Structure formats: C-alpha cells, structure tokens
Amino acid sequence: MDGAKPYQVFFKVIFPLMKPMHATVAILSFMWTWNDFLMPLVLLSDPHQQTLQLAQYVFQGQFSTQYNLAFASYVLVLLPVLLMYVFFQKYIIAGVTSGSVK
C-alpha cells in the first residue's frame, strides 16, 4: 500500500477487517430496537401507533389471557429476528469469534 492516502488505507485494509464486528453490532442493534417494549409503552399513547410488542400486551388481562391470539402475535414478532439471524449467522459468528483468535 505504498503511496496510499489514509482514506484508501482505511477503506481497503482496516474496514474489511472490521466487517464482522460492524455486522454484529448492526444485527444486535436491530434486535435490541425491535424487541424494545418499555420506551414505546412510555412514549406512545395512540393505539394506532403501537408496535407489535405493545400489541401483545393487550392479550393479557387481569383475569384471563387470550393464549391463541397471544401466541400468534409472538410468532409474528419472532419471524423478522429469526430470519435476520438465519441470513446473517455467518457474520454473527465471525464477529463473536474474531476477538478470541490469536
């Protein structure tokens, strides 16, 4: 890389080495945001703006729980995270193990 500018060194050497780490952070950030319950519960008051996680909260009453609707909504909420994990599993494993190899 003789004569390369600092930006070229970063984008051709350093950034490809950090790709698994960036993918892991992006995937875990998506999962953290997708599964968030408390912040939308505090901020959203309109029932039409509820997230899927808040919509699941409706199925549990004080004296009864609608299990058939609750478990159907659990599957709907789980599918995007599960699909994301299946497609990006290679990057997750590479990001987790990249720091442990000598």
UniProtKB/TrEMBL annotation:
Record's subcellular location: Cell membrane
Organism: Pediococcus damnosus
Residue span, ABC transmembrane type-1 domain: 1-88
Keyword DNA damage: no
Membrane-protein topology: Multi-pass membrane protein
Superkingdom of origin organism: Bacteria
Designated name of the protein: Multiple sugar ABC transporter, membrane-spanning permease protein MsmG
Lineage: Bacteria, Bacillati, Bacillota, Bacilli, Lactobacillales
Transmembrane domains' residue ranges: 9-34, 69-88
InterPro entries recorded: MetI-like (IPR000515), MetI-like_sf (IPR035906)
Entry keyword annotation includes Transmembrane: yes
Keywords per UniProt: Cell membrane, Membrane, Transmembrane, Transmembrane helix, Transport
Family classification: Belongs to the binding-protein-dependent transport system permease family.
